[in-house]
Design brief:
Four copies of one chain form a homotetramer.
Chain A lengths: L2 H11 L4 E4 L12 H13 L4 E4 L11 H15 L4 E4 L6 H13 L4 E5 L8 H12 L4 E5 L1 H4 L5 H7 L5 E6 L3 H9 L4 E3 L2 H10 L4 E4 L6 H9 L3 H6 L1 H7 L6 H9 L6 E3 L7 H13 L19 E3 L3
Parallel strand pairs in A: 1-2, 1-8, 2-3, 3-4, 4-5, 5-6, 6-7, 7-8, 9-10
Chain lengths: 313, 313, 313, 313
């Protein structure tokens, strides 16, 4: 792209307020259920979602082969790229894989990438800088800090270094609003990565918005929370936020969307459904907001035998 | 294999005292340097190492494609399988990938696998049980707990459940000797995953031995520490142990073996060498034990420009 | 897609007259040169080409990994899919690979696939029917018969069987115009796969058009040959057609486009440039039509040392 | 390996008389059936077979992913490498893939590779030389000429050029005994690739032996034909040879081994079983030599519904 076009893309992407880390639905054989995916995405767009993370941790990118991951990005660009920003989670703990996937993602038209620090393998500060600069050179990117998953916090000085890269869009920060406030006070663009903190992140800590899990279920309400301060609605969702993270995400989300009839009840291992007791609690919470769940004509507590677990696909 | 043979394999593997998480050396283009690898492994065998983790976190399995990972396991079995136990790190945070790699590893003759819990993606207890039982069904396995990398501790009750599987060899436990003592008191076989605690783990906490990083450098000394209590030698190595983990492993090990002249100074990103100051400190520590570093004819502080960083290979 | 939309797509695709089996240009490291590719495609569109075969034998799909092949299809759809029909060569001699690639190609928006019979491995008539029906079920497809490459002619009775499939678009037939005439007389849609016979195929043997190699170089002239009978122009191109196939395609085409300055002179092995003598002959032929080669500002006989041969990429 | 060892390996491999292009048996899900494979190989060894082509066209290497292909080579080396020469079919029509697979095959211990010319894509003489020299540099190799599959005969002058490479073991030649006689008269080592001509190839045309399909079924008889002239036995097998190639190999072989009860009746598409009539004819021929089919306790004409066809695995 010409530099001016890249510049305007970067500026536009930096202002996205509601980005959904979109669920990847599966067929019974464990392959992608593209019609169900398209229906999910269409409803997201209708309800005001401005961007998608494709194959994020919520979308289970770590359970995809790279060819199906890039295919899903390409599919999303082709079907919806003129209506919503498509951000591919092409990060990896291997710099080689991150570079290859990011390059492919941009080649098929994604607007930006999401870049994680090297989880599990970890590296030194010098290694972090090397890794992030390499992937930022490929195109616009959001950098993702979630030490509860990666085993390694991205230190402030690394963030303050890479934020000057012309392709840096901002941080997806999961360590809380004080950290976000500190970053935004220094001019570092931020999205909250925690739904329960996102209202305050946006309205008091300077975050531009949220990269949300909950918006898979109630996109319109999340859109409202980002559009204007609304402490009452935010408070009313507290239990739902909490339930959606009662087990490592996306276990509850997967269970929720199945119980809402919006995706087939298929889990790629190592994810398995919530327990019966957790499902009952969730069904009650979902029923309470059912009118805000687009496409949902009823919430049902499902039985163990209805879920399909796929270990090989 | 017939059940009796599997049984005797399991019994033999449970008694390995010194297992090295072996370094994977690279050529300048980032591909495996098999002659250097073979030399490393031969010296390990000469100095009393009884088992190898191939493609562990130390061996940078997370930076390998699966085809080169399985190839390295097969190569090791073919070249050394009659002299040393070959344990392939065929775990993954994707159950599908773990099953496929583990199946392939056993097909090419590895003796056991190393199985991590699903890092980064994480899962529920029910998901952990599902994952571990699936991979244990493939053959003998050591289960690896390292929450500082995975972002999720494997809970005691999960360990006490899966330890009754006939293919369970024991835990590689990195959370300290009190935990190990608790496990071994309940009959759960354990290896220490921390070199600095391994002497005490073996001689006072009931661990059978260690899965060691340091033994890449000084296999004979580590063999001695496992063979009999030797508090003096253990104390003398304290600084070396500490230096080897001054940055996320295997950064210091990679730097050390290059400075000892045992591998080419090639790093796959996101790993980069230690800083000049760290290298100087390490060179002094290594020189002090040089007579115990097999194959080493001199330790040299290397310069930045001598190292090769590979982002695409 | 809804059935009516598929129907109209099929009807539209059946009428394409000039389809280019587009060249894939490379960077010096052997990766795709997407800017050069985009320039080529843009010029094709300007000169009236109506469809592209992406990753055909001309585009060296057999030298691509599937992930880069599907990526190139997705890229083409995203960048040009509203202006030209994108036909991915997602066939394979392995039914599994053909199904997987074809499924992915349609998921990223390609309009149709090109399907070869199982070359090299070959199979029985019953196997051919099984293979073609499987891939035709995935979406609209052109079936490609080129026994000089595959080692096995697709028999007439197999063609007459599969042509009734609702996704069958027609044959790309390379065995000559009498065969095409026989097929079209029976209502089987056909494209000529031989540039030198394509004028007559279209105007006397009932073919709808051509899938062309030569149109990479002179798209406007080939468009003219398809638009209306023009025996004089056709005759004038005889030597150029002949030269373009003096070695197995795309050796001459690759050499030609490099000598015209339209692609970097990079060859993926086992392809190597034409000899110096062949290049001289070609340069003369190309110079004679230079005004019809879009983007070409001069034809130059290149030297051996200017070409880059890539064995590993 | 040291040069002297390579030299002696090459000399030994050049003298192999009976090499089987071994069948790959499958489970019902299309994955490898390793126990059935091991049983087949064990019987081959018992009956005097001296070498194996692993994943040849008979073994359906073209229907394998490379990771399973290299895994099968590694498995064979590990289980049988001290009793039989293991020759991996690591050739490809892509030089890059051939180099990668050949390198991996040697890394896991295979003794030699089988190298095809670039089928389907084809190339010029200069390209052939470039391709063959690249793969011969990796280690000992047999070069395979089968224009009926590849669409391109390897010209005599190319053979006479590459035969001087120190890793060249000989030709697997399928174009008939006059060609073999010409080659052997010039000192080019040859194996016949046609079972029906192999007796004469060895005893009158100078071939060292055969790379055989039929020896999967009757290894002892084929061993006899190679050991000493035996025109009567050779004549008696004429109909069986003919039947085994009544459809593109390995269709009849797959059907035969299933009807002999030696492999599960599973076909990877595009292969499908012979027709009922062909099966009846084959069953009669197989019954006539049943005492020479190791492991076979009865031949049975199977029904259509008993066969499993696998399109995705």
């Amino acid at each position: 792209l010409p530099a001016s076009e890249t510049r305007s893309t970067v500026d536009r992407l930096k202002k996205l307020r509601l980005i959904t880390a979109v669920k990847t639905p599966y067929l019974a054989n464990g392959k992608f259920d593209l019609p169900a995916y398209d229906a999910l995405v269409s409803r997201q767009i209708e309800k005001g979602v401005e961007g998608l993370i494709v194959g994020g941790t919520t979308g289970e990118g770590h359970l995809m082969s790279w060819d199906e991951h890039v295919m899903l990005i390409a599919h999303t660009v082709n079907a919806f790229g003129d209506k919503i920003a498509v951000i591919g989670n092409t990060g990896s703990n291997s710099t080689r894989e991150a570079l290859h996937a990011t390059e492919q993602g941009f080649a098929v038209g994604m607007h930006a990438s999401l870049q994680i620090n090297p989880y599990y393998g970890k590296t030194s500060k010098a290694g972090l800088l090397n890794h992030f600069n390499a992937v930022l050179n490929e195109g616009p990117a959001i950098v993702y800090n979630v030490p509860g998953r990666t085993g390694q916090d991205i230190p402030d000085d690394v963030v303050l270094d890479i934020c000057s890269h012309s392709n840096f869009l901002g941080m997806k920060e999961c360590t809380g609003n004080p950290r976000i406030k500190n970053y935004t006070s220094k001019g570092v663009n931020c999205w909250s990565g925690n739904d329960d903190e996102s209202h305050d992140a946006r309205h008091t800590a300077g975050a531009v918005g949220v990269i949300s899990v909950t918006s898979n279920v109630i996109p319109g309400l999340m859109h409202g929370l980002m559009a204007a301060p609304d402490a009452a609605t935010n408070a009313s969702l507290k239990e739902l936020f909490s339930w959606l993270f009662c087990e490592p995400n996306p276990i509850a989300l997967n269970t929720a969307l199945a119980m809402c009839g919006l995706v087939r009840p298929v889990f790629r291992l190592p994810y398995v459904p919530l327990s019966r007791a957790q499902r009952e609690k969730g069904a009650a919470l979902l029923t309470a907001v059912q009118e805000h769940i687009p496409g949902c004509t009823g919430v049902r507590v499902m039985e163990d035998h209805e879920f399909i677990l796929v270990g090989r696909h």
